[in-house]
Design goal:
By secondary structure, the chain is mainly alpha-helical. Helix content is about 85%, strand content about 0%. The longest helix is centred in the middle third of the chain and has 39 residues. The model has no long low-confidence stretch (mean pLDDT about 90).
Length: about 260
């Protein structure tokens, strides 16, 4: 019975969390239909999510493209197919590695920030104070973060895709003595607009997941400083798991 009780307990918690995320998303969407929209707060959060995340995103994308080119060369060299390195790097970055790695980096940096900020405001009763001041906390705190993350993540992915392909180009041409014209030709020959669109659609969905999960965990935080720590950890772990799981279903839907 202990095993069955544990299974039921964790199943109940998972369903409760899922319901909280869906309820939070629905409430925020309803609030988007009418003013005020707080554009200044949206711009501030966009700067936090987009500009402040650029260093870690660019570094991750650059070295991912470089490693991918190096590993592809090791395999393709056995079959005398080194010319296909550009196609592998570009398609891998645009379809999968770009959106997923950027989302994971942003989840670790921004998702934890959302949960910690809102969790601290919850345990210090600042969110309750907003209600007393006739200010809707969901509209003032959650909506700008959700909009900013959903809009900025596709832009980060586009930059990361370009830098990842350029990282592969640098390794292929500068280190492996590949023909630069062949690399560029193969990178564009097998890539279609649908490949780029699929990565952008994934980025939008991932940004939505990160913001909803991070804000929900912080908004429903309880238990003082210890509770803030738990909410921050849960936000990062659940967001990363959700990104990986949803990536499979999005890929199956778009390319299946």
């Amino acid at each position: 019975m202990n095993l069955l009780q544990r299974i039921g307990y964790y199943t109940e918690r998972m369903l409760l969390r899922t319901g909280q995320y869906a309820a939070m998303f629905g409430k925020v969407v309803r609030r988007m239909a009418s003013p005020p929209w707080y554009p200044r707060l949206i711009l501030q959060q966009a700067e936090e999510v987009g500009v402040q995340s650029l260093p870690v995103v660019l570094l991750t994308a650059l070295f991912t493209g470089m490693v991918l080119a190096l590993q592809s060369y090791i395999v393709f060299h056995r079959f005398a197919a080194e010319s296909m390195i550009g196609a592998v790097v570009s398609l891998s970055m645009v379809r999968e590695l770009g959106p997923v790695l950027v989302a994971l980096m942003v989840a670790g940096r921004v998702g934890s920030s959302f949960a910690a900020e809102l969790g601290t405001m919850r345990v210090s009763e600042q969110i309750d104070a907003l209600w007393t001041l006739s200010t809707d906390p969901l509209r003032y705190l959650v909506m700008p973060r959700l909009i900013a993350a959903t809009l900025m993540l596709p832009l980060l992915v586009i930059v990361a895709d370009f830098l990842g392909v350029m990282g592969g180009y640098a390794i292929s041409v500068g280190m492996l003595d590949q023909n630069p014209a062949v690399y560029i030709e193969k990178s564009t020959q097998f890539m279609e607009l649908d490949d780029m669109y699929s990565g952008i659609i994934k980025a939008v969905f991932f940004g939505l997941l990160i913001s909803v999960i991070g804000c929900t965990e912080g908004f429903h935080c309880r238990g003082g400083a210890e509770g803030v720590g738990r909410a921050t950890t849960s936000a990062v772990v659940i967001a990363c798991m959700s990104i990986l799981v949803s990536d499979y279903f999005l890929t199956a839907w778009m390319f299946g």
